[in-house]
Amino acid sequence: MSLAKNSEVMAQQVTPADSVTAAAELFVSAFVAEPRLTNSSVLNTIPSMSAPQIVIDTNAFVSALRSQYGASHKLFLLLDSGKFEINVSVPLVIEYEDAGKRLVGKKTRLRTSDIDDILDYVCSVANQRKVYYLWRPFLSDPKDDMVLELAISAGCEIIVTYNKGDFKGVEQFGIRVMTAQEFLQAIGELP
């Protein structure tokens, strides 16, 4: 008997004169009368593993802008792939913008408007986080502290950077530090 039919039967059978127990039994029978569990419904209740949460340091962003052949560029091409989730904060995006626009006319053929478009895209696919607390000073560079604070507040597992030595000690927060190539290998995008 379907749930809708059981509801109709329940409405017809339960009158003010009926006991609470009879109504409860009828209500329970609406859910037990027909087993609804199938292989697909059981599988859909098992939570899937979530994508790794990462923060990408500014040096990896700049590297992606400078060369379309490197691991950083491939990492940014995969931003909306679902294989990982990037996390950003306002201070980090401002740092991306500053570093990216310093390249205009020097090391790339990118224009200021290209950097703006890239940042708009990054912000559209990223988890935008607010950092409400400061761990400073923890690292030797305040800009690296900003990246660490974002990673902690966002619950990130990984910081992607080319300055791994600058992030010594972040393991105590449960965060791993990887280069773009190491990260892409870890998620199966590079051999």
CATH architecture descriptor name of the largest domain: 3-Layer(aba) Sandwich
How helical, in percent, are the residues?
Answer: 40-55%
Shape: globular
N-to-C SSE string, H for helix and E for strand: HHHEHHEHHEHEEH
**Major sheet: arrangement of strands:** 3-2-1-4-5
Query: What is the fold-level CATH name, i.e. the topology of the largest domain?
Result: Rossmann fold
Q: Please, what is the CATH homologous superfamily of the largest domain?
A: 5'-nuclease
Output the keywords.
5 strands; five-stranded parallel sheet; alpha/beta; 9 helices; 191 residues; Rossmann fold; disordered N terminus
Task: Describe this entry's structure for a reader.
The protein is 50% helix and 8% strand. It is globular. Helix 4 packs parallel to helix 6 (90-103). It is of the alpha/beta class. The protein folds into two domains: 3-45, no CATH class; 53-186, 5'-nuclease (Rossmann fold). It is built from nine helices and five strands. The chain has a five-stranded parallel beta sheet, with helices on both faces.
Short description:
The protein has 191 residues and is α/β, with parallel strands linked by helices. It has 9 helices and 5 strands, in the order H-H-H-E-H-H-E-H-H-E-H-E-E-H. The chain has a 5-stranded parallel beta sheet, with helices on both faces.
Secondary-structure map:
Elements: H1 3-13, H2 20-32, H3 39-45, E1 53-56, H4 58-66, H5 71-77, E2 85-88, H6 90-103, H7 112-125, E3 127-128, H8 142-154, E4 158-160, E5 176-178, H9 180-186
Helix pairs in contact: 1-2, 4-5, 4-6, 6-7
